[in-house]
Write a structure and sequence with these properties.
Blueprint: H1 2-7, H2 11-14, H3 29-44, H4 54-57, H5 60-66, H6 76-90
Length: 110
């Protein structure tokens, strides 16, 4: 469902649906209900920080029973983005620092 939404298509199209004379509407009431249900789940059940069910992740005993701890890992894509932002910030031309984004540059094969 989330994947279909990220692609901007209905769940039934994601699952292979194609328009026919009998079923020409991609976004019928059922598809809209699916998306509304997903949004409701994300707002009421899913933790905005970790993505887990809030009944679990807000229960300290359950979390400590399930996990032995955490570890820090490095996302090297984010590291590249942070370095680019740091260079940009240090350039002195930043007007609106919270509206900036980055784009990764692919290496050319030679």
């Amino acid at each position: 469902m989330e994947c279909a939404r990220s692609l901007g298509i209905s769940y039934k199209r994601f699952m292979g649906w194609r328009p026919t004379d009998d079923d020409a509407a991609e976004w019928d009431e059922t598809e809209r209900d699916w998306m509304r249900a997903l949004r409701m789940y994300e707002q009421r059940v899913q933790c905005p920080l970790c993505g887990m069910d809030v009944q679990f992740c807000h229960d300290e005993d359950a979390v400590r029973h399930t996990f032995a701890g955490g570890q820090v890992e490095i996302c090297f894509v984010t590291e590249l983005r942070e370095k680019a932002m740091r260079r940009y910030t240090e350039s002195g031309v930043v007007k609106n620092p919270h509206s900036q984004t980055t784009k990764l540059i692919a290496r050319t094969t030679e």
